[in-house]
Write a structure and sequence with these properties.
By secondary structure, the protein is mostly beta strands. The protein has three helices and nine strands. The strands form two sheets. A five-stranded antiparallel beta sheet has the order 8-7-6-5-9. It has a four-stranded antiparallel beta sheet with strand order 2-1-3-4. β6 and β7 form a beta hairpin. The longest helix has 6 residues.
Length: 114
Amino acid sequence: MKEIKFRAFDTKNKVMMDWEDIKYIDLNTLQRSNILMGYIGLKDKKGKEIYDGDIVHVEAVAYGRNMNAVVIWKNGGFILKWEDEYESYIQDWAKELAESEVIGNIYENPELLR
């Protein structure tokens, strides 16, 4: 069973808050000045949890992919949006994501997408 948890980016103070920081905060309070990101249920090769908004570097040469992708929630599921704008469903890349590395996120490291 997938573990359900979130993290939040505090837009006012520009800091990321993990699950331990936010799990007891009232949802209405939390949503006022924060962007919530859901855990996708997978970890990268270093054991780091992968969340919505993360930037991952994926090396899947067999599939012609050796680039960064952003994890986003779209149409009821998580997808990877690649640097070349192609989109893939997360479940199709679960094995490759386990060998990938989270290198940042779109809020703290937007320069990784340029």
